Amino acid sequence: MANATYDRREQLQQIESGLLQNEQIIAVYDAIGVGTGFIGLTNRRVILQDKSFVGKKIAITSIPYSKITSVSVVSNRSWTGNFFSTGAIAIHVGTHTYEIEFRGDQKSHHVHNVILHYIS
Fold first, then answer.
1. Span 58-91, pLDDT tens digits
2. Which of 30, 48, 94, 120 is deepest in the core (most CB within 10 A)?
3. How far apart (Å, rounded) are the C-alpha atoms in residues 26 and 77?
4. Per residue in 4-25, pLDDT tens?
């Protein structure tokens, strides 16, 4: 996608290979920490690469926006009360919560705003 925002070309290509008809990629961001490899946002769904399976298995999980109940920006507060962004979001789907951490808070805010747009 010419106008999609992405961190790594191979992740973008992985999302492109599984697109549905008339589906467009908005962004693909690399995730840091244990479990999630990347998150993709399209005009129809959120796509997560989950590396938390036993035996080095990897899953690509698609979450339609209609199944997301809420999205949160996850942050820490220091003992002095100053706000420090961790660059993380939590996506709530039924009783399950997916937490994704990014390099930089701009990506977490973009993901949050896109999801909020499609679920509200």
1. 889 999 999 999 999 887 655 455 454 558 899 9
2. 48
3. 31
4. 999 999 999 999 999 999 999 9
The C-alpha atoms of residue 104 and residue 119 are separated, in whole angstroms, by 24
Q: Find out whether 71 and 91 touch, Cβ atoms under 8 Å.
A: yes
**45 forms bridges with which residues in the sheet?**
64
Return the number of other C-beta atoms located less than 10 Å from residue 52's C-beta.
11
Tell me the residue ranges of DSSP E strands in 4-116.
Answer: 5-6, 25-30, 36-42, 45-50, 59-64, 70-77, 83-93, 96-101
Q: How far apart are CA 46 and CA 65, in angstroms?
A: 7
Distance CA(6)–CA(29), nearest Å, equals: 5
Separation of alpha carbons 104 and 27, rounded Å: 15
Closest C-alpha to 89, from 74, 78, 75, 103: 74
What six digits make up the tokens of 43? 């005009």
**Contacts of residue 35, Cβ cutoff 8 Å, sequence gap at least 6:** 50, 51, 52
